[in-house]
Amino acid sequence: MKKAAIAVAVLLLVAAALIAQDFSNNEYLVKAREYEALARLSFDEGDYDAAADYAAQSKEFSRLSDEYVARMLARSEASTRMAALDSRIAEVEAYANAEDLFMNLDVARASLEAATGSFDSEDYVDARQYAENGLIALEGLAESGVLPASYVVRLLLPTRECLWRIAAYPWVYNDKTKWPLLWEANRDTFAQPDNPHLIEPGQVLVIPSLAGELRSGFWDPEAVYPALGE
Questions:
Q1: Which residue from 7, 96, 130, 143 puts its CA 20 to 30 A from 182's CA?
Q2: Domain map of the chain by residue range?
């Protein structure tokens, strides 16, 4: 009866382990189920020694299946995060002021390279962590949206646009006192380079980055932009 009790206890443990398994049809799980079936058959036939042996083998294959599933999940997660980092790097590289972000990009690229090396060595946990580190390096760079890098002067009546009004737009500098930045960046395109007050409708102004904010493309009147510094 003692052997029967041991066999029953092992069978219950094996059954619980199998229920908890990911139902991926891996070779270890298939073996675990095969040995579980043999254990139950031997138990029903009263061969408790064989039942215990089969149950132990089923439990071992269940453990191997657990490890395999965990490894495959880690592989999938690492692959997903590496793809996200690769995409994020390409996105940031496309920004008009990408050269201002070289330190962040260098960290991200190095992280992707390290992640790739670990992935190739089947060290999926480290690969995922390296990818996460790269994503953190680029985190927040465009979290609140990308601001415009260029602006076409408009004809606004009854007032006229001027550099201080443009600088005051929330998506430019949100500060009218920053207008000299616009002038210095664009004075060579002015009809009178030494006269910052003479701007004309249709004139294209480059908006240089003030504090590392991300800027790309022309201002779109239909788009919603965040206010700089808020």
A1: 143
A2: 2-70, 76-137, 145-230
